[in-house]
Every structure is written in structure tokens, then in C-alpha cells.
Amino acid sequence: MATVVKESRPSSNHHKVEVIDVPEQSSSRKGWTISLIVTGILAAIGTTTFFVWRRLSADEE
Fold first, then answer.
1. Taking the CB of the first residue and of the last residue of the chain, which one, N or C, has fewer CB atoms within 10 A?
2. Measured between alpha carbons, how far is 22 from 30 in angstroms, rounded to an integer?
């Protein structure tokens, strides 16, 4: 998924902006997104495991 942004203004300075993502940039952004999602999932699993383990150890005492 490459984002294409085209901005044209019919003003006196003829301001024109074209931003076209190169596939390498979008793939690196995709890699960052995947790594962030994986990090979030691992953090959620670790937190849940920690609280469950604390509750179990508290029940044993």
C-alpha cells in the first residue's frame, strides 16, 4: 500500500506538492508496524502472565 498525496493550488506561486512513496519506504514502515504489534502482544502476554502468577502465588499462601 503506497500512499499518494497530490496537492495543487492554482495560486500565483503555483504551489504543487507530490509525495509518492517508494516501495522500499512503505515496506520499512510495514516492518515497523509489524514489530510494534508484536512488541505490544508480547507485553500484553507478559503482563497477563505476571498478574496470573501473582494471583496464583497469593492463593497458595
1. C
2. 13
DSSP three-state, residue 12: coil
What is the tally of structural domains in the chain? 1
| Residue 9 belongs to a domain | no
**Rounded distance between C-alpha atoms, residue 39 and residue 21, angstroms:** 26
C-alpha cell recorded at residue 31: 516492518
- The pLDDT tens digits of the residues spanning 32-45 come to 899 999 999 999 99
Residues lower than pLDDT 70 in the chain: 1-27, 60-61
